Amino acid sequence: MAKSLYTEKELSELRARLVAERGDLQAQYQELEESTFSVNQSEMTGEMGFDEEYADAGTATFEREKDLSLVNNLRDLMDKIDKAIAKMDEGTYGLCDRCGKPIERARLKALPYANLCLQDKQAEERVR
Q: Which of 88, 86, 71 has its CA nearest to residue 26?
């Protein structure tokens, strides 16, 4: 398997960015978890009192679903960051998971947790 093309200094700077970003994401995740899941059971199931409007129930449901989607997105990003850091430890950071070729530096500068080169990412997007 090919080795990362980055210097120790570059990897150190990228790792620092990833660790800082993961810390920010973890804080957002915990905040959302606390606000979304600290509601009582009737609010969680969407049960409303007789005097509450259906629109209020719909709004509450929408907000819960939005928060759950955000929580899932944060989890996904944290997983990607963890995988990028693991690839740094293995010495394979910056290599495409699909073709094994180096990922473009500009792409990794913008998304340090990217795991596919631009060509493979575009091919993946076309399939969707």
A: 71
Q: Kindly state the tokens that stand for 76.
A: 């996904």
Total residues belonging to the chain: 128
Which residues have a Cβ under 8 Å from the Cβ of 118 and sit 6 or more positions away? 103, 104, 107
Determine contact, residues 42/64, Cβ cutoff 8 Å.
no
Is 93 in contact with 11 (CB distance < 8 Å)? yes
- The whole-number mean pLDDT for each consecutive block of 10 residues of the chain, a chain of 128 residues, reads 76 96 95 73 51 65 82 95 96 94 94 95 87
Find residue 68's DSSP bridge partners.
none
What tokens appear for 1 in the block?
């398997």
> Per the structure block, which two tokens stand in for 27?
């804080």
**3-class DSSP assignment, residue 95:** strand
Q: What residues does each domain of the chain span?
A: 8-93
What's the CA gap between 121 and 110, in Å, rounded? 14
Of the candidates 96, 105, 86, 90, the one whose C-alpha atom is nearest the C-alpha of residue 123 is 96
